Amino acid sequence: MEAVAEPGKDEVLLKMAAAGICGSDLHYYQHGGFGPVRVREPIIPGHEGSGYITALGAGVSGLATGDLVAVNPSQPCGTCRFCREDLPIHCQNMRFMGSAMRLPHEQGMFRDWLVVPAVQCFPAGSLVTAGEAACAEPLAVCLHAVSQAGDLDGKSVLVTGAGPIGALVVAAARHAGAASVVVTDLADAALQRASAMGATETINVRRAPERLTVFEKDKGQFDVVFECSAAEPALRSAIAAVRPRGLIVQVGVTGDVTLPLNALVSKELKLIGSQRFDIEFALALDLIADRRIDVRAIISHRFRIDEAVQAFEQAGDRSAACKVQLTFLP
Fold first, then answer.
1. Is residue 43 in some structural domain?
2. pLDDT digits over 264-322, tens only?
3. Fewest CB atoms less than 10 Å from the CB: which of 76, 252, 277, 296?
4. What is the CATH number of the domain that holds 202?
5. CA 57, CA 166: separation in Å to the nearest integer?
6. Checking phi first, is residue 177 left (phi over 0); if not, alpha (psi -120 to 50) or beta?
7. Based on the domain organization, do 88 and 176 belong to the same domain?
8. Are strands 299-304 and 74-75 parallel, antiparallel or unpaired?
């Protein structure tokens, strides 16, 4: 084994196995950042990862060498105003692996070996692959979004955007009891994956926008919309298709957009945001570990770590790619 750091107290050493390329990683690669967040020094990206425990530091319990674990990339400080208010998701000093938001940048998971606090490691069991376990982070994002919507049992749902997050929102919404989930996108491959994740109907709004317009009848049909595309036309369509006093959960992020405020007001709509996750990480891995939510359909490509450039190029081709993962084992 190559020389690597030894885990300290309450830490573990992981041999990384799989890690997914997220939209933020892709923005770092393609544009050097997104919005005000810019890469200002060398950074190892990656915040969706899993690996095998190879060594335990002093004081670690509940984990064993050989365990496949998913790594929660969030490290709230525990002492700021929001942490004290039990809102660690809004921690003012959040350390998030693979993020360029702070200086020095937080290094991420696209590496062979990783020393990490044991509290951030969650066992994945023996049923699923390392690639499936690495999907815990994006699924946690989606479970948090679904929790923002309250009770979905028997509700009609629209999901705009069928990328990895949109597809996992479909699965999370169905798991939460949604009676129907209609999904829109511009790419047939993405819509096919949404169907595999539980969508009851898919609409290619590039080819057949009139199929979505039908849902605008009688002031809108959907109880809840999860907007995952971050596209202004999709948000406008959501406002038109959701019923009066319905709810729109904004999951996708972008720059400034304009909104039809008259429609928002006249229909008495609720528009709320959803970012990251908190306690949902453990639940996400539990749902993946016994395949109550089967994430295999969203994993479209795998590349070895020495093929990282090809992996990032593939991830940028949305006509074919969904979740592109790097692998670290021989």
1. yes
2. 999 999 999 999 998 999 999 999 999 999 999 999 999 999 999 999 999 999 889 99
3. 296
4. 3.40.50.720
5. 38
6. left
7. no
8. unpaired
Mean model confidence pLDDT for the chain: 95
Total Cβ atoms within 10 A of residue 196: 15
Of 142, 164, 135, 146, the C-alpha closest to 23 is 164
DSSP state at residue 249: E
- Number of domains forming the structure of the chain: 2
CA angle 234, 171, 203 (to 5 degrees): 40
pTM score: 0.94
Which residues form the domain of 115?
A: 11-135+295-327
The 10s digit of each residue's pLDDT in 295-308 is: 999 999 999 999 99
On the CB side of 47, CA atoms within 13 Å amount to: 28
Please state at what angle helix 308-315 crosses helix 23-31, rounded to 10 degrees: 110
Which CATH number goes with the domain that contains 76?
3.90.180.10
Residue 67: DSSP 8-state: -
The rounded distance, in Å, linking the Cα atoms of 302 and 198 is 23
d(CA 246, CA 249): 10
Residues in the chain: 330
Kindly state the DSSP code that residue 78 receives in the 8-state scheme: S
Q: If pLDDT is split at 50, 70 and 90, which confidence band does 249 have?
A: very high
Among residues of the chain, what percentage have pLDDT more than 70?
99
- Same-domain pairing of 264 and 317: no
